[in-house]
Design goal:
The chain contains 3 helices and 10 strands; from the N terminus they run E-E-H-E-E-E-E-H-E-E-E-E-H. It has 247 residues and is of the alpha+beta class.
Length: 247
């Protein structure tokens, strides 16, 4: 079980509870952002299918509510309870490698582990507008790539389906010398990320299809919450495959 090396200002530990209270009174709403390079349309799926066209500003508890719960990933273990980290107070630090936090309100993470597949970290970054989220998602990925992957072995992943409004993904070798993947996507007023890795003896190599499934789960849950409803989507049981590790 590992912890992320991402700059979180307060040493933010990735975690999420199995339940969260959803606020109904969100702030200013705006329209969703347009598509960006790095994704392709997902056949047979409309914006309404992904949770509706709303792009509402999320509060702290709503941000936490986007994340998967303990029973949303079958056979995975969620490590601890959730927390929303206030990023609005850190605006003065949003420069250089941390420029992704410009316009950010808060963030929250869920950290899952599996004995045969290492770990998956889901993170939601809430922004004041969809334009701010769209501008930030490539910067978030760049920050993750610098901190999590060996620059000598990092390559772009071609996602087979559209994830959120726009997405980018990378794969390579982690600081623990194991296969790792990163995905960052804009979804309305949020940026959602997926980070996989783990100890070399406990990790797996995620395919582009598997990475897209994980990213879509989080982006679609974000759209559900922005649309005023609870996040009800879970990961299909056949979305990921595992190779049984030797005891």
């Amino acid at each position: 079980m590992g912890t992320t090396g991402r700059v979180r200002f307060s040493g933010f530990a990735a975690a999420l509870a199995a339940t969260a209270v959803l606020l109904t009174g969100c702030g200013d709403a705006d329209s969703g952002a347009g598509s960006r390079a790095g994704t392709s349309p997902e056949p047979g799926r409309t914006q309404a299918d992904r949770g509706g066209p709303a792009a509402a500003r999320l509060g702290p508890e709503q941000t936490v509510a986007v994340l998967p719960r303990a029973d949303d990933l079958v056979d995975w273990s969620l490590t601890s309870r959730p927390a929303a980290e206030d990023l609005a107070k850190k605006a003065a630090m949003c420069t250089g490698v941390s420029a992704w936090c410009k316009g950010a309100l808060q963030m929250s993470s869920a950290f899952f582990t599996h004995r045969d597949a290492g770990h998956i970290e889901f993170t939601v970054y809430a922004y004041g507008t969809s334009a701010a989220a769209t501008a930030a998602y490539p910067l978030v990925l760049k920050d993750l790539e610098i901190r999590e992957l060996d620059p000598e072995n990092s390559t772009e992943v071609a996602l087979p389906t559209r994830v959120g409004d726009a997405a980018l993904a990378k794969q390579g070798t982690t600081r623990l010398n194991s296969p790792g993947t990163l995905l960052s996507a804009a979804a309305g007023t949020t940026v959602v990320t997926v980070r996989t890795g783990g100890l070399a003896t406990m990790s797996k190599t995620y395919t582009p299809k598997e990475l897209a499934a994980l990213g879509t789960l989080l982006a679609d849950r974000s759209r559900q919450v922005q649309g005023g409803g609870p996040a009800t989507l879970d990961l299909p049981e056949d979305a990921l495959t595992y190779e049984k590790k030797q005891p």
